[in-house]
């Protein structure tokens, strides 16, 4: 099992409410419907637990993926491609991190 963590802020000029409405209505249902994805969440940072200031990232995505090969095949789906293109219109230089449990 791998977890993909995506850290990102919105591009300058992107309306936060518009992005969040798109994420709820389109991104979350499409990705969660993929056979290769166990669970997909979009989290909105609300602050830091320790320290001063705000989070360096406004949004965090978590994708639990049991089979990366199957996930790669699912990425070819036209709905996924359309969603990825839309995500790139909102997200400013997202950082995709592959992780696995110890």
Can you tell me about this structure?
The chain is an alpha+beta fold. 36% of the residues lie in helices and 30% in strands. The chain is built from 3 helices and 4 strands. It has helices at 16-32, 68-74, 78-90, and strands spanning 2-10, 39-44, 59-65, 91-99. Strands 2-3-1-4 form a 4-stranded antiparallel sheet. Helix 1 (16-32) runs antiparallel to helix 3. The longest helix is centred in the first third of the chain and has 17 residues, at 16-32. It is globular, with a radius of gyration of 14 Å. It starts with a strand and ends with a strand.
Strand order, main sheet: write it out.
Answer: 2-3-1-4
Oligomer: single chain
The percent of residues in helical segments reads 25-40%
Order of helices and strands: EHEEHHE
Based on Cα principal axes, name the global outline.
globular
Q: Assess the beta-strand content as a share of residues.
A: 25-35%
Structural class of the secondary elements? alpha+beta
Major beta sheet summary: 4 strands, antiparallel
**Head-to-tail CA distance between termini:** 11 Å
Number of DSSP helical runs: 3
Low-confidence stretches: none
| Total count of strands | 4
* Alpha carbon gyration radius: 14 Å
Overall pLDDT metric: 96
């Amino acid at each position: 099992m791998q977890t993909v963590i995506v850290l990102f802020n919105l591009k300058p000029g992107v309306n936060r409410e518009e992005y969040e409405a798109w994420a709820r209505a389109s991104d979350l249902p499409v990705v969660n419907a993929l056979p290769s994805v166990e669970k997909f969440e979009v989290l909105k940072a609300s602050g830091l637990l320790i320290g001063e200031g705000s989070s360096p990232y406004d949004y965090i995505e978590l994708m639990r993926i049991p089979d990366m090969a199957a996930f790669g095949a699912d990425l070819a789906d036209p709905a996924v491609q359309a969603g990825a293109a839309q995500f790139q219109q909102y997200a400013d230089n997202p950082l995709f991190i592959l992780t696995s449990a110890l």
